[in-house]
Design a protein that fits this description.
Helix content is 35%, strand content 23%. By secondary structure, it is α/β, with parallel strands linked by helices. Adenosine-5'-diphosphate binds next to helix 1 and helix 4.
Amino acid sequence: MRLRQVALNLINNAIKFTSKGGVRLRVEVGADSVTVEVQDTGLGISLEDQQAIFDEFRQSERTIARGYGGLGLGLAISKRLVEMHGGTIAVHSSGEDGAGSTFSFTLPTVPAPLEQVRRADKFSSSEQSVLVLTNRPDTSERLCEHLSRRGFKTQITLIKRGQTWRAQLVQSRPDTIILDLSTDPALGWETLKEIKSSQGLAAIPVLFFSSSQAEGTLLELDYITKPIEISELTRALDQHWLMAGSIRSTHTILVVDDEPNTLEMHARIVQAHSASNRLLKARNGREALEILHRETVNLILLDLQMPEMDGFEVLEAMRSLEGARDIPVIVVTGKVLSQWRWRA
Ligand code: ADP
């Protein structure tokens, strides 16, 4: 999203200040960096102005004299974004009027996250450690027994409001965390938010457990905040495929969002992640459930805030729907989770 924002800003400027000739976009991939270059044959920028235009609200004397409008913010924002990602941005122009300009930015590339692959390899082995976070151990007793019988190294940690359990968690680094939402779901969501915003813990898969129905149910949920960073969604998708042990096969993914532009954007990201995926779209919770009744779905990308039937209601309904209970869900939310109301 940000990369696009910076590149588009440079391209828009190049077009704006070029009346003849052309604009060229070039992308060069190096060993550990990527350079994007936008070259134009327009007005060019005097040597004195070349530094100033990266400051806020600054425009070159040349474009002011010609009556060009603008806020003078685009380059300042681009510079900040690029530098925040460890990159650099620069302009080259001989300075002569009409000589054109070349803007370029370089960003370091990031190696693919190997850790997830390793974790996935481990998933089937009995060496897996599971940490159950609960505010009342009795509700998850049966779950823990079950996990231990299955050979998982199981540990329970009590969570309470305002308690600092995070350091303990970072130390024990479990392979999977199970959050018990049975008696205090709001606390569970707060805990999830803390886990997902903590650097050392964010990559650990989190499962949700609730024993509020006759038998306990387990929902596999991931959690992403809007606006979605493409890399974050890709990470979540990777994790699901790796855990399912089938990266290449076709998956049916249901994307649910009431906002048409967001729905399209999320669908595009998912499709780009793997072209072989089959995509289903639902504009609200009711449509999503209809689809779940008639289709086999492997993963759901679910918006929580929707009118009519929201994401929480969908999750509730999924629990009692045979076949839907086991579908992993990536929850997408712009909402402060602690304000969430839980319907028992
Ligand atoms: P804005 O375009 O809204 O004024 P920017 O921060 O994107 O804001 O650009 C700041 C100034 O830099 C522009 O007003 C213009 O004077 C100069 N500039 C930017 N790109 C070019 C270009 N490709 N050719 C000539 N001048 C440019």
